[in-house]
Amino acid sequence: MSDLIARSDRLRAAALLSPAYIWLTVAVFLPLSAMIFFSLLSDVPFGDRTWHFTLENYGAFFESTTYARLLWKSLMLGVTVTVVSVIVGFPCAYVLAKVVRGRARGALFLLVILPFWSNSLVRIFSWAIVLRGNGVLSTAIDAVLPWDVRINLMFSPTAIVIGLVHSYLPYVILTSYLALQAIDDSLIEAARSLGAKRRTILLRIILPLSTPGIIAGAVLIFVPVVGSFMEPRLLGGRLGTYYGTVIEDQFVAVFNWPLGAALSFILLAVVLTILAIASPILRRAQV
Amino acid sequence: MSNRFLSRIGLLYLGMILFFLYAPILVMAVMSFNASEFYQLPFSYSTEWYERLQRNDEILTAAWRSVWIAIITTIIATTLGTSAAIALFRYEFTGKRVLQVLLFPPIAIPWLITGTAMLIFFFGVGIGRGTPAVIIGHVALALPYVIVVVTARLSTFDRSLEEAARSLGASAWQVTRGVTLPWILPGVIAGGLFAFAVSFDQFVVSYFLAEPGDSTLPVLIYTAIRKGFTPEINAVSTIIIAISMGIMLLAARFSNFGGER
Amino acid sequence: MKRLLLTSILAMAAYGANADEIRVLNWQGYGTDLDWAVSAFSEKTGHTVVHEYFTSEQEMLTKLRTNPGAYDVVLINAAYTAQAQEEGLIAAIDKSKISNMADLDPGLVANVDLNPGGSMHGVPWTWGLTSIAVNTNDFSDLPTSLSVLWDPAWTGRVSIRDDGLEAVQFAAMATGQNLNEISDLDAVKAKLEELLPQITTFWSSENDWNQFMSAGDFAVATYWSGSASRSIAKGLPVAFVVPEEGALGWLDGLSIPASSTKQDAAHAFIDWMVDPEFYVKWDADGAPATSNLKAAAALPEASFNRKVLGDPDVVAKVQFMKPVSDEKRETYLKLWQDLKAAQ
To answer: CB atoms < 10 A from the CB of C148, how many?
Structure first.
């Protein structure tokens, strides 16, 4: 009897999983395998170009410190953006889940998501208009303060972080909201009636129960930010060279696909390693 | 510090965040009414860009194409992604870890790489370019997000509810429909919203896979950067946001999304 | 008159006979895709034109390599024509099918880069300069030397394009070297190291450049001559300068992929592109210099191209870009990348 259940369960699991994973295999994993193949070549196998197998693309990462330094720079950017997003976004999600009541909650939630749908390039350009020398921010502050002020935040790491946090904030707000909203209010009521202080409730009940949401959001932010190139390039100016922009160069300007592919897989490996190391710690944070 | 006071602070904070989130959107909208071709202040009102937009078939077709590609992508990605998330949550089996880890490459690897890889592979395999290829690409990119978001919601779900329903004689499908899905509906909808955003804003993959001449809006904008980025782009983006806002507010009014828990 | 009659007869014959659809591969907004130009061509010959674009020379080469038979006309910068020919990507031009050939500048027609293997593989079409342009709000007297880019008075208001090859070439000119025979790469590297702190941001397209210039972000920046004429026409406070050290010269040619099946139509399109009737109208909106001497002579006096590029002193200072070997290109790119990463 139990054997039959196990078998039918397995079939069910397979039925639920296969459409998604077959799709991913055809559209992503197989193409990426082609890319791994490319990363082991000396040159792209198109036209009349000669090529041979080699590990030199991966070796290039270790040849000079440039790539490693850029990767570190990108990782730090990832950490900064993630931490800022979580600190800014979690309270926002909490207010949305626990303070706002009724129909307004749904509407506000959707309003938070809406900027997500605007085109990212247009958004970045809009940030440029806000942050630059004669821009909206500078003009506004100048109008308010009595003395002459000219603020130019553009082409700096600050601008990059602002742009990225703005783009990725909805991720952590969303996932935290989903987790927070699931917390039973009566749980909090009970704790309060037992005399627990607000801080205790926060630290012992709310945070642990919403950690899965926070972590999911953090991962969805950290991973893409490390490889990002649009915001660093457009908002960072001269200082906007990051690991992601170098990879982009290989594909768009330099046409060294094997190197670009190798660099991306190194990125993937590093990111997965970080997540693997962090996961037991994160697991302990959950109740 | 009374609860009331804290609530007020909380709402104020939420207001500030919303302001931050909408700042560039507002700037984008205001600039669409600004006469300057180069986005220069001081502001002077003009509807020229909207008039130009009306005559600009290219942008309008591209925008429309982006919308319905995004809708199709959302439907497919949400269905497939939710099923997969439920399966990962409900069942234990060997290789589960591997499947979970496999969700990362699409998110970690810059879309530029994945897009190029898709281009080469699709070309070699015969899928080639065109709208079906674009949709295949978009769904693939949206899937991991849907799965992660739905999983986040599922992690708050009490599995014993499912087991209880099963022990009362409900079939697996009935359990899913009656117990699991209602609970995770916010997660599913969130995943759907993500999928739409991913598809609608996707330009890298679309750039590689779209048939030239059959552009999507993000591709048009991206290439317009080279040629001339006039505020017509702002005009179309503003219209899209305005329509989206309208739809969303209507949806919020008539459905109980978010739930009265 | 006789030619007009002949053309009309041929056109009418062509209409019914073989109306082809040709695909043109070019930069977006670079002359070949002008609506009026395309319709005029279709009316004259009956052929229709479809465009596809690239955003870098490398992308252009990739598209040629991976899409045999897809394109009929492709724009290839003279520095890349030899490479395309070596890889078997482009066919020799049949000069007899280009009626305007006799009016083209003989120097350009004989240009060794457009004639790899001794036969023409790219019809010289446009040429121009990459030099410096200044914000006239900042400069009452125009600078005469490239060293203005390094002038501490303009720290944080300088810009160049994010292109390793171009950066190296400018630094080479600034250190008095021939940009095609760079012997002292260390001097170039040192010069670039000094340049980078001057830069506020890199520009990558005409549109970028215009926006930054009108926002006052740039005081002096490198720029293309054709784009400069357009920006000036738009009313931006810009002046184009060719300094004493020289400017980068580039020559663009129209080539025909070897795998094209519509080479006759392709030749006809190229012929239209070097035709004075097309060029003079294009120049009014802002265009690079033409290879057609008759067309150049037909330009109005006040035209930018006539004033700046028609000046023999200016032309004497120009160093035209020659093909760069893959190894050299990689060295330069790596150099540039390392410098950028160290910022």
So the answer is: 19
Closest CA to B53 of B232, B219, B231, B229: B232
Tens digit of pLDDT for each residue in A237-266? 889 999 988 988 887 777 788 888 888 889
pLDDT reading at B228 higher than 70 = no
CA-based end-to-end distance of chain A:
34
% pLDDT > 90, chain B:
14
| Beta carbons within 8 Å of B98's beta carbon, 6+ residues apart | none
Task: Report pLDDT digits (tens) over C200-230.
Answer: 999 888 888 888 888 888 999 999 988 888 8
Residue A178 and residue B221: Cβ atoms within 8 Å?
A: no
The whole-angstrom distance between residue B215's C-alpha and the CA centroid of its chain comes to 19
Q: Is the pLDDT of residue B258 over 50?
A: no
Distance CA(A222)–CA(A75), nearest Å, equals 8
CB A254 within 8 A of CB C58: yes
The enclosing H or E element of C170 equals helix C164-174
Is there a contact between A220 and B249 if contact means CB atoms under 8 Å apart? no
CB count in 10 Å sphere of residue A275: 16
Helix axis angle, B131-154 to A2-24, nearest 10°: 140
| pLDDT higher than 80, residue C250 | yes
B/e letters for B13-50, b = 16+ CB within 10 Å, e = fewer, are bbeebbebbbbbbebbbbbbbbeebbbbbeeeeeebbb
3-state secondary structure C316-328: HHEEECCCCCHHH
> Would you mind telling me the total number of residues written for chain C in this entry?
343
- Nearest Cα of chain C lies from the Cα of B37 at a distance, in angstroms, of 9
Q: Which residues of chain A from 109 to 168 reach within 8 Å of chain C, CB to CB?
A: 132-134, 154-155
Measured CA to CA, the distance from residue B46 to residue B27 in angstroms comes to 15
ipTM comes to 0.84
- List CB contacts (< 8 A) between C201 and chain A: 154-155, 236-238, 240
Regions of chain A with pLDDT less than 50:
1-2, 287
Inter-chain contacts counted by CB atoms under 8 A, chains A and C: 69
Quick check: B182 pLDDT over 80? yes
Q: Are B52 and B230 in contact (CB under 8 A)?
A: yes
DSSP A25: I
Residue C104 token pair: 């083209």
Residue of C201, C202, C208, C326 to mutate, testing the A interface (most A Cβ within 10 Å of its Cβ): C201
* Band (B259; pLDDT cuts 50, 70, 90): very low
Condensed to tens digits (0 to 9), the pLDDT of residues A154-188 reads 888 999 999 999 999 998 998 898 888 888 888 88
- 3-state class of C178 per DSSP? strand
- Which residues are CB-contacts of B213 (< 8 A; sequence separation ≥ 6)? C50
pLDDT above 70 as % of chain C: 95
Whether B126 contacts chain A with CB within 8 A: no
What residues of B are in contact with residue A182 (Cβ under 8 Å)?
153, 156-157, 183, 261
* A contact test, residue of B13, B18, B69, B113 with most A CBs within 10 A: B113
Q: Please give the Cα distance from C173 to C170 (Å, whole number).
A: 5
At position C341, the amino acid (one-letter code) is A
| Top-confidence residue, A89 or C62 | A89
pLDDT of residue A287: 43
* Distance from the C336 Cα atom to the nearest Cα atom in chain A, whole angstroms: 11
Distance (Å) of CA B64 to CA A217, B33, B61, B173, C332: 31, 22, 5, 37, 43
**Spatial distance between the Cα atoms of B219 and B115, rounded to a whole number of angstroms:** 13
Q: Report chain C residues whose CB lies below 8 A from the CB of B123.
A: 66
Q: Which helix (H) or strand (E) holds C313?
A: helix C312-317
